[in-house]
């Protein structure tokens, strides 16, 4: 039975003999059928089809509500992470992804030594300490076992500079 027939029958059984006026205007309201991909007036839909369509739309709304709740939870989690990151001091250290040394391949000559001395001069000494180690054994010293535990500064062609954060009372 088509919807416009159901509206007429229900209207006749009503005390006033009519339904609300918008129930008689369902011929102007269109529904796009997913199976035929055509628009049809709601009044021309079969009553059972109308009920099934309504239930299908309710299911879509429920699914959408679930997705919205999930999105809201994700947004709250993101906001918490952003607030934690913004509240963290800028100087807070993050783990290094590479080597522990800050400078490498510094030539072990007067110019390199001047660079290291300048680093030491301007270092924030209450918070950090600086270490200088040898890098690359001089060619004439190869095979003598001098670099078994790392090259001495005097036996190296280059230097590495390590800057470490001080911990506790040092």
Keywords for this structure?
single chain; 170 residues; alpha+beta; 2 domains; three-stranded antiparallel beta sheet; two-stranded antiparallel ribbon; 3 helices; 5 strands
What does this structure look like?
- With 170 residues, the protein is α+β, with helices and mostly antiparallel strands.
- The chain folds into two domains: 3-85, no CATH class; 103-165, no CATH class.
- It is 38% helix and 18% strand.
- It has three helices and five strands; from the N terminus they run H-E-E-H-E-H-E-E.
- Strands 3-5-4 form a three-stranded antiparallel beta sheet, with helices on one face. Strands 1-2 form a two-stranded antiparallel ribbon.
Write the layout of secondary structure elements.
Elements: H1 3-13, E1 30-32, E2 39-41, H2 47-87, E3 103-107, H3 110-122, E4 128-137, E5 156-165
Antiparallel strand pairs: 1-2, 3-5, 4-5
